[in-house]
Amino acid sequence: MSTYREIHGKAIKSVTTDPSATTDEGQIWYNTNSSTFKSIINSQTWSSSSPTIQDQKYSAQVGTQTSALIFASGPAGQTYTEEYNGSGWTAGGALGTGRYQAAGFGTQTAAVCAAGDAPPLSPAFRSDVEEYNGTSWTEVTNNSTARYAVTGLGTLTAGAIIGGREPAYSNKTENYDGTNWTTGGTYPAAISNVATGGTQTASFAAGGYVPSTQSNISANYDGSSWTASGPLNTARSAGGGAGSQTAGLFFAGSDGSATNKTENYDGTSWTNSPATLASARNSFGGSGTNTAALATGGFPSPSVPKLTEEFNSSVSVITAAAWASSGGLGTARYQVGGAGDVPAGLAFGGYGTSIPGNTNKSEEYNGATWTAGNNMNNPRGQCSGQHIGTQTAALAAGGTLTTLGPPNYGTACEEYDGTNWTATNVLNTGRSYTAGFGTQTAGVAATGSTSPATAASEEYDGSSWTSGNSANTARYGAAGTGILTAGVIVGNYPGTGNVEEYDGTNWTTVTSYPAGRFGINAGSGTQTDCIYSGGSNGTTRTTETFGYDGTSWSTRPALGNALSSGASGGTSTSAFIAGGRGSPPGPTAGVTTCEEFTGETTAVNVKTLTQG
């Protein structure tokens, strides 16, 4: 009998600490502290990611898990396009012809959309073809046959479309060389809604819908002809495909109702995977490889059309980024100021009742619970949008300083040292709803309400305020993050997406926030790596979260609760939001709700070995 060393070329080691490198896959060791044998093994899992901006149903999707494109959504036939960067979705260029159930193939920067259903055009079934260059779509040569419920594979210069309905079910394949369409091989069945993977000359197709039933057919394509292969274990249609002809993946789809199953393909036969999607779905976008795939949107539940899940087959366990409930504030309030991070946050001031009544209470966060600190010298409301300093060195600027009655746009400022609040020199321009960012010794207070809104900006040096250049847009209800020389403010009452960056001297209008909001929970992070969450457009509060990379905005996992005007702090991967106004909109009292954001994490998959 061969020994473990002879088979694997390495011995079983005795260790006190488990190895943590992915290169240790397959290595068995004995942990002397736990008295157990362990190993790092491969696992297949699906995990949640950031939602799309728009609902995506009957969509086409191309690209990889870190660079994908989704387009041609239904059921009305939409023109919108979204791009995925591995963390979230951002808006792309619009299709010239709105459609759904179209074929897609290629990459995020070189994609093809062919055929599809395009109501209210007549006829609705189309042969229109467009190419995407990473920015915009351009009409090119039509494919030969108008059809919908069709599927694509390959690249922009070497692709193909398969099956569909004309409206009769079709077994046609058309090849594309980046300019012209030619007749390809005949598929083994007249079919629609198959799943595919691979290249024009080495691909697979599986599943689909033949008249009256789901199919378990799979076949391989060499660019000229199709050859039948082993059937799927579960007959289904409108599923997702990824990978290559010899390392493929089929996931979800409908077997009469939506499923969450995954199957692996080796070029000959299909094997059930232990990995299942969190949400069963069909008629969605799927792309990627057999070790890193992406499923986006689909049917049937109300939450699915924006839902994104990632598939990974690796020795690493991925924990998806998410917001989670944490310990609540001791005092319910809204329009709260915030500072600090996780696990050292701060919430101060705000309105404590449905009839405006300012509070001077402050509370400290330790990552799990909130504890009352010493009160501020001045009760003040409308502090939301401020994010200046840390838990032990924070700054509160302006706000409404009267307890009840007409607003008093205050100039008063206070510093917090982790124990006490101390009055400091006042603002030059009294205001509330101020966007603040920076530190206690290098802070910025920008825009705000002076009835009307102001664009005035001031800088704080730890002692006094100095007027700086005004922002480009007078506003209030904005939120800020960053440092004095690299800050960003977002939002505007009653709900616009205006965004400006500050370089320590000048303000520059940049890419708009994807959703028009005010009272957005102040950004966490830096000018080039931050997240903003929630907010209101005056009639609706939201759970939406978006990330900013200094150039563009993309989606992030949604809040558990729709919130606006809460205290916040942290980074793009570790943040908190506390208090604010919840749902429904209107003059509701503040809430005590606190949520904490944790970015995606990975860890090697260490398993304890047991005797079977």
Describe the protein's architecture and organization:
By secondary structure, this protein is mainly beta. It folds into three domains: 4-40, no CATH class; 45-314, Kelch-type beta propeller (Neuraminidase), CATH 2.120.10.80; 323-598, Neuraminidase (6 Propeller), CATH 2.120.10. Helix content is 1%, strand content 41%. It is built from one helix and 56 strands. The longest helix is centred in the N-terminal third of the chain and has 5 residues, at 4-8.
Uncertain spans: none
What's the N-to-C terminus distance?
20 Å
* Tally of separate domains: 3
How much of the sequence is in beta strands?
35-45%
Helix content: under 10%
Structural class based on helices, strands and sheet pairing: mainly beta
Shape by Cα distribution: globular
Number of helices: 1
The largest β sheet comes out as: 4 strands, mixed
Radius of gyration: 28 Å
Q: How would you state the average pLDDT, rounded? A: 93
The CATH homologous superfamily of the largest domain is termed Kelch-type beta propeller
Question: Which second-level CATH architecture of the largest domain applies?
Answer: 6 Propeller
Beta-strand segment tally = 56
- CATH top level class name of the largest domain: Mainly Beta
Quick recap:
The protein is built from 1 helix and 56 strands. The chain is an all-beta fold. The protein folds into 3 domains: 4-40, no CATH class; 45-314, 6 Propeller (Neuraminidase), CATH 2.120.10.80; 323-598, Kelch-type beta propeller (Neuraminidase, 6 Propeller).
For the structure shown, list the relevant keywords.
single chain, 612 residues, mainly beta, Neuraminidase, 3 domains, 4-stranded antiparallel β-sheet, 56 strands
